Amino acid sequence: LFAGYLTYKANMYYKYLVKFPKFLRYIILKVIDIFPVSYKNYSISYLLKRLIEGSFYEKEKAHYWWRVIFNDDEKFSMLNLGNKDNIVLDSSYKYLEHFNAASGSFEEKALVSDFKLFLGDNDLILADHLGMHFSLEIRPPFLHQEFVRFAMNVPYKSKINKGQLKYLLKNSYKNVLPENILKRSKKGVVAPLGLLFKGKLKNYLVDLFSESNIRHYPILNPQFINTLLVNHLSGKEDNGYKIWSIIIF
Q1: Which string of b and e fits 91-125 if b means at least 16 CB within 10 Å?
Q2: What residue spans of the chain are helical by DSSP H?
Q3: What is the pTM of this model?
Q4: Residues 6+ apart with CB under 8 A from 18
């Protein structure tokens, strides 16, 4: 509702990134891969890599890409699909349906699309499941219908100002909340998956991803999954989100 995610900052940087020649952006990606992997939830190297990867798409699809875990080539490599000629694994169409149906500026249409998909299919599900698990009644007051209608009619330029996310919301509470709360960095409900898979869950993961076990799922390619696992455990890549997605599958 108030542009509080880094994806909206990414939209700001996009117009500058696309001015760089593609070959130069590819070189930067290769340089990033040289540095040691950080298993922080959103490390600088991870965010920079995602940002540059998104710059190879059209602006509308780039916004969708900021939240993608597997790209289309990885999906094809991971799945045994036989004849791939008539198979489409690009799921951006679902996002673009909402984007194209919305009105307003690019940024406002992106907000509506995230509201339709990311909020309902991800954030609220997390809150709901966590609340039920700990027997808590969760109430998201900012999602009261009248408040949502109000927020959707506020111009985007009032929501993010000179790179400050949730500008309007924070400004509204500057005389109510202490400064250390207003300026505190965003804390998402994100588990340190990369570290867990290298630590406490390593044995579980190695057993789950063994070739004999993966063979029970003919649609999965054991070689691709093994490479994901080896690169993660060796510290070559942080594949935490990819590994988690396969576990859920």
Answers
A1: ebeebbebbeebeeeebbbbbbbbbbbeeeeeeee
A2: 6-17, 22-34, 44-54, 59-65, 72-78, 92-101, 106-114, 124-133, 145-152, 167-172, 179-182, 193-198, 202-208, 211-214, 222-233, 240-248
A3: 0.84
A4: 55
Provide the residue type at 197 as one letter: F
Query: For the purposes of burial, counting CB atoms within 10 Å of the CB of 224, is it exposed (0-12), middle (13-18) or buried (19 or more)?
Result: middle
Give me the half-sphere count of Cα atoms (radius 13 Å) on the Cβ side of residue 157: 2
Which residues are CB-contacts of 37 (< 8 A; sequence separation ≥ 6)? 45, 194, 235, 236, 237, 238
Which amino acid would we find at residue 44? I
What is the tens place of the pLDDT at every residue in 131-168?
A: 999 999 988 889 999 999 999 999 998 999 888 899 99
Supply 147's token pair: 């408040």
Calpha distance 88→127 (Å, rounded): 32
pLDDT tens figures, 81-110: 877 777 888 889 989 999 999 999 999 999
CA atoms within 13 A of residue 221's CA, in its CB half-sphere: 13
**104 CB contacts (<8 Å, ≥6 apart)?**
112, 156
Instruction: Band the pLDDT of 41: cuts 50, 70, 90.
Output: low
pLDDT tens per residue across span 172-188: 999 999 999 988 887 77
* pLDDT, position 209: 93
